[in-house]
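Thread: adenosine-3',5'-cyclic-monophosphate complex, take 2
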Amino acid sequence: AIERTLSIIKPDATKRNLTGKINAKFEDAGLRIVAQKRIWLSPAQAGQFYIVHKDRPFYGELVDFMASGPVVVQVLEGENAIAKNREVMGATNPAQADEGTIRKEFALSVGENSVHGSDAPETAKEEIAFYFSGLELVG
Ligand code: CMP
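Output below.
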């Protein structure tokens, strides 16, 4: 089915000027960028976005990192977009990511791992609504 998923290009990647290279990976995989904006999250906003991880030991570090510089939030659309995006990203930990994936090529560590992608249809819906209004989604 045609799906939409929420993607974030993280501060480690925007800092190294990798937005275009990462977007090319999405587009080469058949994902269409139907919404996109570059924003700088406050710690409160980053903390809210990642609230499901609030009890994890890395939560504070994750929030500080996500608020440390600009991010590019985007909506990717395509056939099986949620799973396809996860394939293109590669494993969360770049040490375990397959050749050719974004995280294998660009991620610095499990924390500074260049991209985020929704993990399921329900979270995709919530995460898209966190950043975008319906008017901003241009199929
Ligand atoms: P993401 O897909 O954005 O979802 C939660 C994030 O937490 C994950 O990517 C990682 O960047 C981060 N994360 C997971 N495990 C660790 C860890 N051990 N240390 C720091 N950050 C982590």
